[in-house]
């Protein structure tokens, strides 16, 4: 490549991750508009999907409140200037010292728990620390049951270190219509508010009542009583979220750039150099109306190939493309380039250590890093 | 932790990857013994699973021949001293310069192709370069059909740059008995040798006839005519390979160390901090006799929990453990530690940037890096 020429999608080594800045900004604006419909509601974006300070500058401007899923994220964003964090995965006693070290250095990373013994450890820790109680509003993953007496016990143990309540409506992903999302959001709201009312009646202040998921943050009809909503995947979107109505198919901001490494016109299949490692083996669209295998195949400009053409088989470094329509072999020699839209962008992005940023075209305008691992 | 004390599995931040050196050595010895049964056969271990120089020192001692799956691996191992490599994923013209740069610096990285146009580009490249023709022996992924006339055309184009033939019997993974493996190995052998015979009759020397997969490398009854066999996953093993007979369940060398982050005695479930990112979403045991979900749960010493206990649901950072037997909640507070044996070790290992090495106990005797990405 001539150093005087701008880098384009034709120059990048494959496989690699491409992020479209224009689509990202559109998705962020859509969420900000949805949240702004609810007076006083704060958006606390979840950075588990993006794991990038450059994305956080747009999604949580002015170092606004964020959500994280790992200690590595907490550290990376704290060092980048984002003080106000919720670390939204149940904390273990062994991880508290690392959180307290960040807080002692100026951050305000709040932990979550649903366990009485852990609450005691949080309460007894000599360093700066605050916690939210995780409340189960129907997902049946983590959290104290919203109507359980244990809630009040944990609140009592945390005492002044109780920062509020947190719920996650991950079961909204099972919804298949905007009405479903709105109903699940309202169920979450009524349950976490009932829990909050009981604790407040017992004298707890609960400054934070945090709820959310991308679908419910976008489609909730009422948010009164909820102080903040958390969402992450909306930033980038993916095939699954498009199918359940979080965004349009055209609003998938992250794709994997791949090269053709095999051609079988007689079988109407292609091999790409994006396999299980570059795409992840997430199969979430298996449960959605259209099953996209391991991803939907697009041309270099982001338009779907005839079909749909999907990555039907994924080996470690090989992805086999199949299509219901004839594939355009004449335009796809070995080394020809395609893009793959992911089933689940959180997992696909985590397979890569950086984003190659474009803005609607093929020119690469920036490279942004990611904080992977733990 | 007291700096004077040795680091143990109780001290490591979770989730993380644990490699048992004793099991690794046992698996390497088993493969070396299997290969030694065939006089003259060379083992060219595939480093796509381990991606580690420390493992390569044991699996390919004295900088012996290796197989790699990415340019990143080729570069990392070449710089580490392993000259003789086969880069066993169909090459693109755009990747040739990077390979040639390694070869010009002293390496001997051989590429593979099944495409006439790519063969012309290889033949015309001004730098040091040699290629093998990929032959399809039944997997129907990449490769020229073993009886296709295109084989001779590609061989003719490569001319003096033709280093040999390469096949991969990945369809051996569909085998469910040692007889199946032996039959698939023999089919691979007869097909690639028929192709080699035809090309040799046309005057091509073909110094390398490379075949393999872990199951066929271990269970082939005859290897005459095959010059080298490639295998990778045998080093670490996994649940899927144990189910198809590559090794015993006790010989899974790589596990994910996890902490309990949620307890639900009333539902007999646990949450671990090893979810889809730490384990991968590989579901290969779905097609095996026993479906282990996203992994089999072991205690800190590597013994299976009652059940089997498996990671039944995998969220980004949460793994939900379910079991057919009562889980030992009394020994598993929040922060309690378990290990998870993976469905597919290549994908699980790739989610981590290092190995924490133990040797049959809990003491961490070394930390070994990995070369991830591309």
In short:
Two copies of one chain form a homodimer. The first copy, chain A, contains eleven helices and 18 strands.
Query: Biggest sheet of chain A: strands, sense, closure?
Result: 9 strands, mixed
Which segments of chain A are poorly predicted (pLDDT under 50) over 5 or more consecutive residues?
none
CATH architecture descriptor text of the largest domain in chain A: Alpha-Beta Barrel
Mean pLDDT of chain A comes to 96
The helix content of chain A, as a percent range, equals 25-40%
Number of helices of chain A: 11
CATH class group of the largest domain in chain A: Alpha Beta
Order of helices and strands of chain A: EHEHEHEHEHEEHEHEHEHEEHEEEEHEE
How many separate structural domains of chain A?
A: 2
Secondary structure category of chain A: alpha/beta
Oligomer state equals homodimer
The total of beta strands of chain A comes to: 18
What is the name of the CATH topology of the largest domain in chain A?
Answer: TIM Barrel
Terminal CA distance of chain A reads 36 Å
Most extensive chain interface and residues per partner: A-B, 58 and 58 residues
